[in-house]
């Protein structure tokens, strides 16, 4: 693949990621009108029979989870890069993630019904502030790790310059000093900080939260395989999501090693 083609491909995938992220923000924040060309918002009124809607939604979430986790595994990348050039592997992951997330947002079947609804304008504004803080946390955390590497731009830029790819070193900058997964904290805020929570939103929030807790197991297994004892020690000493709160498993592991 020519270095120009790789760079343009990487930039195009990144631009698509920007568009799909804004679309997802509008979907989860209820800024999309019901039944628009871009689908409905997550809390829009029901369109059909709720069991069928739930089945479609479950399929969509499973499709996203499988794509997002399988394509991130080292064994998959080793096989995949026999088919596609290594410098664009991450951009291709971003592209497939955009397609998967786009399908979730576009085809999501709202089922209406109110689980909770906050009516006080001040409280609604506060919950919306938390919602946007979630998105901000996602973006900020990506910069603390390395935004351009996470989204494939660093890889195509190095290739364009004729330089070899170097893996990111283990680091605990900013919020990573206090918790291991700030980016996932951001996602959890965007799922749950909702002034109106309908049944399909609750289904989405429960499904995606469960997915995060499962994905973390695989991610940390890979991080320990890659960074060795440094990550294992970090895992023992630093809480997963809530600062200054240790999980029972990290306490037990620490006790075993002490
Ligand atoms: C999508 S990011 C999410 C990072 C983290 N789970 C979070 O919620 O903030 C996943 C990638 O970040 C990188 N990563 C996570 N923690 C790291 C650390 N402490 N140092 C270096 N890279 C890290 C790994 O390459 C991992 O595949």
TrEMBL record:
GO terms for biological process: methylation. It is found in: Endomembrane system. GO terms for cellular component: endomembrane system. InterPro entries: MddA, Nurim-like, Phopholipid_MeTrfase. Its main location: membrane. Signal peptide: none annotated. GO terms for molecular function: methyltransferase activity. The chain crosses the membrane at residues 7-29, 49-72, 93-116, 122-145, 157-179, 199-218. Its EC number is 2.1.1.334. The keyword Lyase does not apply. It is a multi-pass membrane protein. Keywords: Membrane, Methyltransferase, S-adenosyl-L-methionine, Transferase, Transmembrane, Transmembrane helix. It catalyses: methanethiol + S-adenosyl-L-methionine = dimethyl sulfide + S-adenosyl-L-homocysteine + H(+). It is an enzyme of class 2 (transferase). Belongs to the nurim family. Catalyzes the methylation of methanethiol (MeSH) to yield dimethylsulphide (DMS). NCBIfam families: MeththiolMtaseMddA. This is methanethiol S-methyltransferase. It comes from Anatilimnocola aggregata.
């Amino acid at each position: 693949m020519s270095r120009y083609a790789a760079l343009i491909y990487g930039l195009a995938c990144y631009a698509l990621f920007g568009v799909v992220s804004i679309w997802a923000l509008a979907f989860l924040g209820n800024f999309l009108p019901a039944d628009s060309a871009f689908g409905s918002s997550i809390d829009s009124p029901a369109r059909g029979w709720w069991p069928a809607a739930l089945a479609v939604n479950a399929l969509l979430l499973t499709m996203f989870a499988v794509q997002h986790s399988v394509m991130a595994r080292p064994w998959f990348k080793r096989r995949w890069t026999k088919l596609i050039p290594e410098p664009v592997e991450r951009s291709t992951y971003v592209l497939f993630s955009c397609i998967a997330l786009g399908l979730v947002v576009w085809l999501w079947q709202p089922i209406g019904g109110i689980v909770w609804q906050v009516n006080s304008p001040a409280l609604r504004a506060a919950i919306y502030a938390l919602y946007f803080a979630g998105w901000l946390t996602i973006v900020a955390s990506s910069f603390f790790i390395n935004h351009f590497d996470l989204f494939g731009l660093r890889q195509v830029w190095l290739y364009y310059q004729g330089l070899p790819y170097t893996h990111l070193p283990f680091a605990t900058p900013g919020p990573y000093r206090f918790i291991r997964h700030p980016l996932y904290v951001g996602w959890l805020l965007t799922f749950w900080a909702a002034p109106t929570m309908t049944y399909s939103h609750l289904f989405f929030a429960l499904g995606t939260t469960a997915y995060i807790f499962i994905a973390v197991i695989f991610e940390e297994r890979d991080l320990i395989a890659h960074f060795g004892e440094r990550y294992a020690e970090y895992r023992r000493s630093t809480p997963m999501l809530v600062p200054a709160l240790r999980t029972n498993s990290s306490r037990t592991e620490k006790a075993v090693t002490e």
